[in-house]
Amino acid sequence: MDEEQKIYNKPVKTRQRVVMATVFIVVALMVACVVMCLPLLIDKAAKEAIIKIPKNATRQMVSDSIAKYINDDYAEKVMRMARLRGSEFGERHGAYLIEHGMTPLQAEHRLSHGAQHPVTVTVNGHKGINPLAKRLAAKLDFTADSLLNALDNEEMLAKYGLTPQQALALFPEDSYEVYWTASPESLIDKIGDNYLRIWNDERKEKAKNLGLSPAEVMIVASIVDEETNKADEKGKIGRLYINRLNKGMKLQADPTVKFALGDFSLRRIRKNHLSVNSPYNTYRNTGLPPGPIRTTSVATIDRILDSEPSDHIYMCAKEDFSGYHNFAASYSEHMANARKYQQALNKRGIK
């Protein structure tokens, strides 16, 4: 090979080596990319979780939440994708659903760009407005005090024909879907819309025929629900209290005394309990208490509205402890029923 040919071959070999080196680097980068990114595309969430992102959240806060409700490894992969995409979460205040089987790529997109997932709040058996406010605040991103303050707004409650003392009536027992970021006012609006749907013209007319407002029916229903869990007896008990109201008699409802004392665990109301100084003590005060003593259901409302007329003004728990009651129209008949029940209590040693 002459010198001219050798000089020509050197650049060719150099170019070949450069090309091979470039190809190797590209392949290596591709392999590294696949190794790094493939888990983000094929790994899946082991379970479903709702991730709540607070205001001004950092990536670390979001990562901690994912790790808590799914696992650390999945959280690390979601955050790796967030770094690759440059996603921040400071303005993503809300609750977002990561579905079972969702890849880290899909989860990151949901958290950084997707729509909020509604939260289900259930109103059921809350005895007083304070316990209800605490329960709702635990599910949503506001404090119990902020909800109580909103419910103390006379103008807001007047839209529903209620006073602040009757605020508990606004919450018929049901499940409601709201966003975690809902304000107390927007929650009240949503639940208030349901209250107005319940109290349609037909139910308002039935209440009027009983001489009651919708709010007053809710108060009676709340007492009835505390008196019994026997659905087939609720209308009868509701009618009894309405009879007492119409006669100007005190309701003398034991559940209102328990509410006034703040102790629903009492099984036997004694004379000293009846002296509690409270507008909710219907042994001392004539008429209905200022507001409901607990949340109530549409089913109870309808049983009262559709109850059969009766002349019952007394009732006493049955001595067989079945949960049912003996009803009476006369005091003498009632006292006979009461003696049977007292004897049964004494026999069982119930104080």
Q: What does this protein structure show overall?
A:
- By secondary structure, the protein is mostly helical.
- Helices cover 53% and strands 8% of the residues.
- The chain is built from 14 helices and six strands.
- It has helices spanning 3-42, 59-69, 72-85, 104-113, 129-139, 144-151, 154-158, 184-198, 201-209, 214-227, 231-246, 254-261, 298-305, 331-348, and strands at 49-53, 94-98, 119-123, 174-178, 314-317, 325-328.
- The strands form three sheets. Strands 1-2 form a two-stranded antiparallel ribbon.
- A hairpin with a 7-residue loop joins strand 5 (314-317) and strand 6.
- The longest helix is centred in the first third of the chain and has 40 residues, at 3-42.
- The protein is elongated and about 120 Å long.
Largest sheet: 2 strands, antiparallel
Overall spatial form: elongated
Mean pLDDT, to the nearest integer, reads: 89
Tell me the span between the first and last alpha carbons. 119 Å
Radius of gyration over C-alpha positions, nearest whole angstrom: 33 Å
Structural class computed from helices and strand pairing = mainly alpha
Q: Please tally the β strands and state the result.
A: 6
Beta-strand content bin: 5-15%
Write down the secondary-structure element order.
Answer: HEHHEHEHHHEHHHHHHEEH
Please, how many helices? 14
> What portion of residues is helical?
40-55%
Uncertain spans:
none
Strand order of the largest sheet: 1-2
